[in-house]
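Thanks for the sequence, V.! I ran 1-deoxy-D-xylulose 5-phosphate reductoisomerase right away. Repeating your input here for the record:
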Amino acid sequence: MRKRHIAILGSTGSIGRQAMDVVRQHPDLFEVELITGNNNSGLLISQALEFNVNNVVICNEDKYDEVAAALQPHYIKVFAGMQSVCDLVCSDNIDMVLTAMVGFSGLRSTIAAIQAGKTVALANKETLVAAGELVMGLAEKHHAAIIPVDSEHSAIFQCLHCSPDAEIEKIHLTASGGPFRTWTREQIASATKEQALNHPKWHMGNKITIDSATMMNKGLEIIEARWLFGVGPERINVVIHPESIIHSMVEFADGAVIAQLGHPDMREPIQYALGYPSRLTLNNRKLDFAALGSISFQAPDQERFPALGLAMEALRKGGNMPCIMNAANEVAVAAFLQGKTSFYGITGIVERCMDGADFVENPDMDTIFATNDSTAARAREMAGII
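Predicted structure:
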């Protein structure tokens, strides 16, 4: 495997930090050309110095002077704003772009990378949720490979390599169930921010952790799987698997089911995407099946976790409805974290936005961006965070 020059968009977030650790373990195989961050200027500066990157973008332009003063004496070029990210990912010096920005904000830079024909290691699920059909069409047009980084979709991607020409009967997306898996609806209704952020298995950023607690994260993954693997919603199943050892499964037409297993560690799917098709060594915890003893499964409860039903409804409706759902959810999660709404208020805001939305059956990319903006504004009004 020749050395790959990569861009890590969102290097200061959870996925970005773990990607940096993968690079740290394989300096002979990966070189970081570009990193980007939003608010964590201190970490961005230390990453740039440690990995001696060529280019840094601080998306929060108010922090540009701080980052530039720290890095320019080391001959590291510093830029500000999202347009700079979009311009720099097109550089001939970059082989692969890891898109780890949080939320809809990652769409524009992912599109730029795809249009430049880059291989995209996709960790930003909202890109395919909001504009899946359009994004996959661009990837085909520009011959840009998309390799999934989400643990579930990476698992599916790996399972499919066992039978690349076989027909998929069903995709089984596994879910931990989050912190409220055993709670009653009444208990969940009064859940606090601290309780919702206490995920039993994964250590992630606040937004994705709340999405896991509502199970909206699994709803987003259903939509992402639909576009990544070209299967209809009727062939995507969600199963609760509290141990989080099986990361997802693929069932084939003959009834055989192939699964990918491992301890919860996002460095595994990150490294698989960055090194694909090679498998590299990783200093992670290995499975001990005898110590594991047993694993369990159960069906999800959509009465306690209505976000799953909303996501399936958005997928079946199609058009700009998944974008509407995603935009409303981003605002509603922020409102919950700010104490502006209750836990079930999150899905309440999403449902009201979907019910009152201006539906467009065949949106173009401009419509997607306009839909996101108008829905976010409406959701902010509902939550009282204008």
